[in-house]
Write a structure and sequence with these properties.
Layout: H1 8-17, H2 23-34, H3 40-49, H4 65-76, H5 81-92, H6 98-108, E1 157-159, E2 165-170, E3 174-177, H7 178-187, E4 195-199, E5 212-216, H8 217-226, H9 233-259
Antiparallel strand pairs: 1-2, 2-3, 4-5
Helix pairs in contact: 1-2, 4-5, 8-9
Length: 260
């Protein structure tokens, strides 16, 4: 993702809201005002770069121990961040944003595990299907009861070199991208050939179904080319529509040239 550029309007507003507020409060207000999803650390760096210092001592805790414990409990239920935010605000009579709650969960490592996504009544599309193996491969397999040191159970998660989260869905070593699994579970069907699922806000840890957008490969190429993938899901969805129009216009132009 391209590095964000901040203008005088952003810096002036940051200078206006910082006095008397904690770092997380400044980040929340800033993101809400400009519809951004910048992390608290990024906003802190921006403040320091322009000499904007906090006037509230850093020793003040952002969340109480009770709130942290409740966040952990909600995360372990396998809920999406939107639902976690709603329940948190209802219990403590606060108005924390989804972005603030997600940052806090990430800070403490409170992640929703893959096994929690497959709740009663929501079966994955690949239930009952065993991982395919080539004929004769059994000769090189470990014997029953023996597992390699690198073995991890089904449902384990990892992050690849591009920052995408993957989930182990079958033995011996079958993995799938978590955002694709969530999209398929939520929509009750497989992702069509020639299509991809992208993160609407660019955050590869936001698995809310509303943030996962299905696009064709042609749309995705045009969106990357024209900078139509934003840090806001609604804008990115609009970008997908615009990409479709641009592709159709380009196709008509090509057909017009062929007729000449």
């Amino acid at each position: 993702m391209a590095k964000r550029i901040y203008f005088k309007e952003h810096i002036d507003y940051l200078r206006e809201i910082t006095p008397g507020r904690r770092s997380w409060e400044v980040a929340e207000l800033f993101n809400e005002r400009f519809n951004f999803s910048a992390s608290e650390a990024a906003i802190r760096t921006l403040r320091l770069k322009h000499g904007i210092k906090l006037t509230v001592p850093r020793t003040v805790k952002q969340y109480t121990d009770e709130q942290i414990a409740y966040l952990k409990e909600l995360s372990e239920r396998g809920l999406f961040n939107r639902e976690i935010t709603r329940l948190f605000n209802e219990r403590f009579d606060t108005s924390r944003t989804e972005n603030a709650i997600q940052q806090q969960r990430c800070k403490y490592g409170f992640k929703t595990t893959a096994r929690n996504y497959w709740k009663s009544g929501h079966e994955p599309w690949n239930k009952g299907k065993k991982g395919w193996q080539a004929p004769g491969a059994e000769r090189t397999q470990f014997k029953k009861g023996h597992r390699p040191q690198t073995w991890v159970p089904v449902g384990s998660e990892t992050v690849d070199t591009d920052g995408y989260q993957k989930v182990k869905i079958a033995d011996p070593n079958k993995w799938a991208f978590k955002h694709r699994l969530v999209w398929e579970r939520h929509n009750g069907r497989k992702i069509p050939d020639g299509h991809a699922v992208i993160f609407g806000d660019g955050n590869k840890r936001n698995f809310d179904p509303d943030n996962l957008i299905l696009v064709s490969r042609a749309q995705l190429a045009r969106m990357n080319q024209s900078g139509l993938i934003k840090n806001n899901a609604a804008l990115t969805k609009t970008g997908a529509v615009v990409a479709d129009l641009l592709n159709k216009i380009g196709e008509r132009k090509r057909k017009g040239k062929e007729k000449r």
